[in-house]
Amino acid sequence: MPRAYWLPHLYGTSSLIVARPSAESWQRMLAWLDDAAALGHDIPPDMEVLNTVFRSQVRYLSAEYLRLNGDWYDKNFVPAYGDPEAGLEHVQVVHFSDLGKPWFYHPRLVRRLRPNARQRYYEFWDMWWNLRDQLWQTGPALDCFAFTFLKHQAVFEHLLRLVHARISPSMLRRRSIKY
Question: Could you report the per-residue pLDDT of 42-61, keeping only the tens digit for each?
Fold first, then answer.
């Protein structure tokens, strides 16, 4: 997991993970989630669950490996690490966390919603939409259908609920999972 550089303590971000799935690990996570729900706690976000349950197994990538697009959302904002343009050549992944996922916001809308953003912020949105358009034109018909289907927010949120329901039916009955 890349280091969550925006936090003051060592923590990994779930925006990018490499995992070795196993039945034992899955059961360990389900047991932790069931315990939290049984105690009446809300289920925390996935990042917190992974860091808590698998703390001893996490290997951290450099904090430079990943950046949040929100580091460029305002010309006056300076992230904890300093100038977001410095060291950008080392960044491998830019995670869309500001505003939401890119398929929900066309670049024209992004420019209206974030009029004071750094130029790079807009370039990330443009890049995503240009790639989407290229894939749309060159991808197989089934992939295009799947992309169109998944980009609609209501469908996407429904799929998330189905995934969460698979985690533990008892948690869903208690309505302790927040979407």
Answer: 888 888 999 999 999 999 98
